[in-house]
TrEMBL record:
This is CNDP dipeptidase. The active site is at D104, E171. Mn(2+) 1 binds at D137, E172, H452. Belongs to the peptidase M20A family. The keyword Manganese applies. Mn(2+) 2 binds at H102, D137, D202. Its cofactor is Mn(2+). It comes from Jaminaea rosea. The keyword Transmembrane helix does not apply. GO terms for molecular function: metal ion binding; metallodipeptidase activity.
Length: 482
């Protein structure tokens, strides 16, 4: 006799074309939270989410409004956080799992180097891959929950736990207003009441073959460095060598932040990092991972370190500093001889225990001010600390992780790796601390999915098996805690 999860899995297989179409419909909405011009589409995506959740039997669906923000010099509405409940049968006797995900995406233009239109899901039959912005981060995994609920209903299988969904539309842009909303709802004691554990599917396997459970995330501190001088852009023939140039100043400062070997040059940062123990080092040694996996994920042979443990630690347990871009710089084809009058350099640090954005902001500001003085420039500098989030680390010795490990074994036939993610989901810590419940990251996508990059994809197998995995996880929770 087939088990409940076998029936649900068979139903997901039968729905294959439909679940791919559902992802295509979502990818077609360019819900780019970082661009004011796309804000109506982010809000459209919230409506799409609400309708989809309603269609699979969710109740109590609410748009939690967060007010307004100023973006690109315009006042725009923040996209709502979508709350929903799923309960059936003897709900009061069941465990309740809080599920978080995000329906916004990173920007994407075909001209960035995409092979296909980023907001049109393209299925490559030869490779079994689905290309499109948000396919893996985070529309695919978010829709995995919906696919799983749909299949339960169609297969006539009762969901053995209650679910509480929280889907936001600002994760890629600092989760503005979300922490306050969670604190407020928690204090009111209504929506989060009865939550037993939390789960987020918004990160990636370590490689391309083996699923993992993730119990840590790096935090983030994002900065914008504004440098301005001349009243307007200048002709370099007439004014080159005559004025202090903002771009030259910016390069001088940005080049003092990090070395090409990845060493952060800001004094005091390294001292904040929790020391490595032998026990922790052994965990990196046993992880199923190779230098070639990282080369596959980056599509290059450019790793700084040449051994597995150093690469894993660089990703999981040490901070990093990345330079992201320069706004206002001449970047088109051609040879324009301009001196830009004002420019904005963008960089961020990934934070690890025991770093906090507040402490990092202090160190970055002191260092940049000191370096600026050394330049002797007459231009004006302003450092803006943008969004930040603390790192998070959980105890994987908990029934939440045990259930997920059993589900991985059931769907994939292997025991998962236990990883820490290099990326950031600041709200993970907020949920864990505010609700005081165990939180699990259960990724669906692979290391080479190209999240945030050009040609972002999710493999159909990860998307379909992942939808099954989310269902199996919930059944294992019910079995383990019955
Ligand atoms: C891991 C998650 N899918 C993700 O991509 N998080 C983002 C969060 C962020 C921070 N600044 C802008 N977005 C990330 O780690 O970059
Ligand atoms: Zn992302
Ligand atoms: Zn994400």
């Amino acid at each position: 006799m087939s088990s409940a999860i076998d029936k649900v899995s068979a139903q997901i297989d039968a729905n294959r074309a439909g679940v791919i179409q559902r992802l295509a419909d979502a990818v077609a909405i360019p819900s780019v939270s970082g661009d004011a011009a796309h804000r109506p589409q982010v809000i459209q995506m919230a409506q799409w989410m609400a309708k989809s959740l309603e269609g699979v039997g969710c109740e109590n669906i609410k748009f939690k409004e967060l007010g307004k923000q100023t973006l690109d010099g315009q006042e725009v509405s923040l996209p709502p956080v979508v709350f929903a409940d799923y309960r059936e049968g003897k709900a009061d006797a069941k465990k309740t799992v809080l599920v978080y995900g995000h329906y916004d995406v990173q920007p994407a233009l075909k001209s960035d180097g995409w092979n296909t239109e980023p907001f049109k899901l393209e299925y490559d039959e030869k490779t079994g891959r689905l290309y499109g912005r948000g396919s893996t981060d985070d529309k695919g995994p978010v829709i995995g929950w919906i696919n799983m609920l749909e299949a339960h209903r169609q297969a006539g299988v009762e969901l053995p736990v209650n679910l509480k969904f929280v889907f936001e539309g600002m994760e890629e842009s600092g989760s503005v207003g979300l922490d306050e909303l969670i604190a407020h709802e928690h204090a009111q004691g209504s929506f989060f009441k009865g939550v037993d554990a939390c789960c987020i599917s918004d990160n990636y396997w370590l490689g391309t073959k083996k699923p993992c459970l993730t119990h840590g995330l790096r935090g983030v501190a994002y900065f914008k460095l504004h440098i301005s001088g001349p009243a307007a852009d200048l002709h370099s023939g007439l004014f080159g060598g005559v004025v202090h140039e903002p771009m030259t100043d910016l390069f001088a400062i940005m080049s003092k932040l990090v070395t090409p070997q990845g060493d952060i040059l800001i004094p005091g940062i390294k001292e904040l990092v929790t020391p490595l123990t032998d026990e922790e080092f052994k965990r990196y040694q046993v992880m199923d991972f190779s230098v070639q996996d990282m080369e596959g994920a980056t599509g290059s042979k450019t790793t700084i370190a040449d051994d597995k443990e150093k690469i894993l630690m660089a990703r999981m347990r040490y901070p990093s500093l990345s330079l992201h871009g320069i706004e206002g710089a001449f970047s088109e084809a051609g040879t324009k001889t301009v001196i830009p009058a004002k420019i904005v350099g963008k960089f961020s640090l990934r934070l690890v225990p025991d770093m906090t954005p507040a402490k990092v902001n202090e160190l970055v500001e002191a260092y940049i001010n000191a370096e600026w003085k050394k330049l002797g420039s007459k231009n004006t500098l302003r450092l803006e600390a943008e969004h930040g989030g603390k790192p998070w680390l959980a105890d994987p010795n908990h029934w939440n992780y045990e259930a997920a490990a059993k589900a991985v074994q059931k769907i994939y036939g292997v025991a998962p790796d236990y990883t820490r993610e290099g990326g950031s989901i600041p709200v993970a810590l907020t949920f864990a601390e505010t609700l005081g419940k165990n939180l699990l990251l259960l990724p669906l996508g692979r290391a080479d999915d190209g999240a945030h990059s050009t040609n972002e994809k999710i493999d159909v197998s990860n998307y379909v098996e992942g939808s099954k995995l989310l269902g199996a996880y919930l059944h294992e929770i019910a079995a383990a805690t019955a």
